[in-house]
Structures are given as structure tokens and as C-alpha cells.
Design a protein that fits this description.
Strand order of the largest sheet of chain A: 4-5-6-7-12-11-10-9
Helix content of chain B: 55-70%
Oligomer: heterodimer
Low-confidence stretches of chain A: 23-52
Number of strands of chain B: 0
Distance between the termini of chain A: 59 Å
Number of helices of chain B: 9
Strand content of chain B: under 5%
Number of domains of chain A: 1
Largest sheet of chain A: 8 strands, antiparallel
Shape of chain B: globular
Helix content of chain A: 10-25%
Structural class of chain A: alpha+beta
Order of helices and strands of chain A: HHEEEHEHEEEEEEEEH
Largest sheet of chain B: none
Mean pLDDT of chain B: 84
Chain lengths: 272, 184
């Protein structure tokens, strides 16, 4: 078929198709924010360093209403090892140019940070291939993945500072999000991250030993207004922070805890 | 301003309709025209023609989506202008993406009886069966003539992922048309 006719044919397709846009995935009531040094001035005395051996340490936790705050949450430090940017050998090497372009084209009314390049993948395996970092390990377990969001955080010249790979999963009645967070030598921020929710919940901290012989650090929340409770499992392996976030009704607690152990047992003992 | 309110302005023949359309959809129309026409002057003239066409078409037409309606008129006006400007010459560079589709659509020399409207209906049905990702990427490439790079930036995909979605989409479209009795 000749090209002018193809143009005409496509011009006749249903107008409803032209309106369609891909929805941006948004998280629920809990928001994670990678923080800079501001975290360390929080009330360090309120918690203990229960899981310092796990590679993560709870720095502070607080509830909605405390000190006039509008959120509950906690701040955590992770012992990450910065990687040279050259260690990222996949297609992610296109990200600096794309970030530079986003910075150049940023407008005041843009609702997306120009320093963050976001890719969506069908599977976590595709995202790992895109990053191409040997130390980044896949999680092989029997859960249904519903999508993966990869965020590349860049500096002013587009250089890759850190990378987050978030995979959304579902297993029975338990909603899961796995995340891998790695830093490069370009990242000048410290190794802290924060979890926030707009609801009034309290957090408890615990630890268990995974099959690989290392500690898994777990932060559990009390129930949200919806009745769902959550936990965050944290493991640092080969300088990369891996987390598992689960939301479930108390009736599914046994299944959720089983998934936490299954996930933690995927990681091999540290070899380097 | 909401689309319904703008359309009401057209219906009462209030010229604020044009200002509101320019404010809300002017950048989109310029993008659609700009993807087809090279010169900024041609783009501006084309967009002015679009506003005139909207003024003439509404009423009696009451678009379900003003965005889609304005985009469609812009595309038609821009292609019309492009054909006029390139009459007797080879196809303009902006239409090159469509050559990717040529091999999966029926050859008119063998199947002249397949009407454009029927083919468009089948392509529309096919697209509605695809994943949102595949559908949006297809439409941005072949309807809006966006570059692979622009699509990748728009949706946060890598360029390789966009190319892969387009490649697989074209193959699935060919298979779909064959199943519907359209020989390629």
C-alpha cells in the first residue's frame, strides 16, 4: 500500500484511540523519598540500632501529630557501596543524555523532576538487563509481577547518581513491591532513605536470620484505616539495598510472613 | 476551561472559543503540524486553518473529545498542505514511519476492493485489543508521527523498548488482518 493512502487510512481510525495515554503508576498512602543529609538531625535517641548488622539501621520513627507533623514514618540508613558509573553496562548508558535533554527542556509547570529518568518494563528481568550491573541479582520466586518501574536519578550534567528498580507483585491476598536501590560514585547524598504515610500508624522493628546467614531487618506498621498492615523487609547485599514492601489484611499475615522469608532466603551469602 | 464549556462557546458563536482552544490545544496542534510540516511558518498557517475549520465545523458537530477532534483536523490540514507542497516529488521525510507499515497492509494493486474505512475500522479494532503500552506507542508513531526518541521520552521507555513494541505491533497487525481475511 502506498504511503499517502496509509496516512489517509490511519486518519480514519476511531478518535477514542487518540485520547488514550498511559497512566502513571502512583503509590498508595505510603511514599518513599530518598533523602539527603537532613535525616540525620532527626531524633536519633528514639530508637535502637537493632539491626546494624543487617546493613540497615533505623534512625528515627515518628507518628502523625507528634511535634505538629502531618505524617507517620521512619528514616533509615543503609550501608550502600557506590559503584563506578562504568559498571552499569546495559542500555542505561543512554540515560545521561536523556536526563540532560530533560533538564534542557524542563518547564516551570512540569510535574516531573527533570533529573529523574523513568522507564517502565513488563518484567523485573528486563529492567535488570537494562541496568547491566553484574552485582544486581534477580529475585526468583513464584509471584505474579504486574510491572517494573526503573528510576534513574541524575546529576546536573546527567551523570547517573543512583538507580531504583521497583517491581509490583501480587501473591494471593498480599500486595508486594520489591525494590533494589544502588548508588554510583557520582552520588553525593548520604545513605539514608525515608518512608512516610499520611495516616497515623506506629512502627515496630525486628530482625531475623535468612538462609544465607545474614540478618533481614523488618519494620512493621500498625493497621492503616483500610485495615491493611504493612511491613518493609530490608537487606543489603553486595552494596545494594533490597527491600520488600507488603500490604495485607491481618487474616493474610501467615502468608505475608512466609513470603518475607522466601524473599530473604533468595539472597546468597556475601562472597566478595 | 473544560472542553464542554469551550464547545458551548462555539455553539453560541462566541469568539472566546478560539482563544480558549488556542490556550488549551494550541501547543498540541503545533506539535502535530510540526511533525508533518518542516517550516514554522507553514505550521502557523496550518494551525490558523485548523481554528477556521473548527469554527466552521462546530456547530453542527459536537465532538466527544475536542482534543481528538482538533488533532484530527490538524493532521488532515497538515497532510493536505504537505501533499500540495510536495506534489510530484517523493514522499516527505515525516512520512517515512509509514513505510514501516506498508509491508503489513494490503497492496492496493492486488486488493483494490478493500476500502479505506473498512481497513481503518479493522486497525482500530486491533489497537483496542492491544496493551495500553503497545497501543499508545503505535498511535504516537503512526498517527502523530512522533519520533522514536520523543515517544521514549514521553513514556519513560528506552528507545529500544519503543522499537520493540512497534516491531511486535506491526507483526501482530499483519497476523490480525490475515485472520480477518485481508491478504497482504
Amino acid at each position: 500500500m502506498n504511503i499517502p493512502r496509509i496516512a489517509d487510512v490511519l486518519g480514519l481510525i476511531d478518535e477514542d484511540l487518540l485520547d488514550a495515554e498511559l497512566p502513571r503508576r502512583r503509590r498508595g498512602t505510603t511514599a518513599r523519598i530518598l533523602l539527603a543529609a537532613a535525616c540525620v538531625c532527626l531524633a536519633l535517641g528514639t530508637v535502637t540500632a537493632l539491626a546494624a548488622g543487617a546493613g540497615t539501621t533505623l534512625l528515627a520513627k515518628f507518628r502523625k501529630g507528634e511535634n505538629g507533623g502531618f505524617e507517620s514514618g521512619y528514616d533509615m540508613a543503609a550501608q550502600l557501596t557506590p559503584f563506578p558509573e562504568e559498571a552499569l553496562t546495559g542500555d542505561i548508558r543512554e540515560a545521561p543524555a536523556l536526563i540532560r535533554r530533560q533538564i534542557e527542556e524542563a518547564t516551570l509547570w512540569s510535574n516531573q523532576s527533570p533529573n529523574v529518568y523513568i522507564c517502565e518494563f513488563d518484567t523485573s528481568a528486563q529492567a535488570l538487563e537494562y541496568v547491566g550491573l553484574e552485582e544486581l541479582r534477580p529475585i526468583r520466586w513464584d509471584v505474579e509481577e504486574t510491572g517494573t518501574t526503573l528510576s534513574v536519578f541524575g546529576g546536573q550534567r546527567g551523570e547517573i547518581a543512583s538507580v531504583s528498580i521497583m517491581t509490583y507483585c501480587q501473591k494471593g491476598d498480599v500486595r508486594l513491591q520489591t525494590q533494589a536501590w544502588l548508588r554510583t560514585e557520582n552520588d553525593s547524598a548520604d545513605n539514608t532513605f525515608s518512608v512516610r504515610t499520611t495516616e497515623d500508624v506506629d512502627y515496630t522493628e525486628e530482625c531475623f536470620t535468612a538462609a544465607g546467614g545474614f540478618d533481614c531487618h523488618v519494620i512493621r506498621s500498625t493497621a492503616l484505616e483500610s485495615g491493611f498492615v504493612t511491613y518493609d523487609g530490608c537487606i543489603v547485599r553486595a552494596g545494594i539495598l533490597y527491600t520488600l514492601h507488603a500490604a495485607y489484611l491481618p487474616s493474610a499475615e501467615a502468608q505475608a510472613d512466609g513470603l518475607l522469608h522466601t524473599w530473604a532466603d533468595q539472597f546468597e551469602p556475601e562472597t566478595r | 476551561m473544560e472542553d464542554e464549556a469551550i464547545i458551548e462557546l462555539y455553539f453560541v458563536r462566541d469568539e472566546r472559543a478560539l482563544r480558549e482552544t488556542e490556550a488549551k490545544y494550541g501547543p498540541l496542534c503545533r506539535q502535530v503540524a510540526g511533525n508533518i510540516l518542516g517550516s514554522p511558518q507553514d505550521v502557523e498557517e496550518c494551525v490558523n486553518d485548523v481554528y477556521l475549520a473548527l469554527w466552521d465545523a462546530i456547530p453542527p458537530t459536537r465532538p466527544r473529545s475536542l482534543m481528538a477532534f482538533a488533532s484530527g483536523i490538524t493532521r488532515r490540514q497538515a497532510l493536505k498542505r504537505l501533499r500540495h507542497d510536495t506534489a510530484g516529488k517523493r514522499s516527505a521525510g515525516c512520512l517515512v514511519p509509514l513505510s514501516e507499515l506498508a509491508e503489513v497492509l494490503p497492496d492496493e494493486s492486488f486488493r483494490p476492493e478493500v476500502e479505506d474505512g473498512e481497513l481503518a475500522r479493522l486497525i482500530g479494532s486491533f489497537l483496542k485489543q492491544q496493551s495500553p503500552e503497545a497501543r499508545c506507542v503505535f498511535v504516537r508513531r503512526y498517527w502523530y508521527f512522533d519520533s522514536v526518541r520523543d515517544i521514549a521520552g514521553r513514556y519513560g521507555f528506552s528507545e529500544n523498548k519503543v522499537k520493540s513494541l512497534l516491531f511486535r505491533g506491526r507483526n501482530r497487525l499483519r497476523d490480525y488482518l490475515r485472520k480477518e481475511g485481508i491478504s497482504i
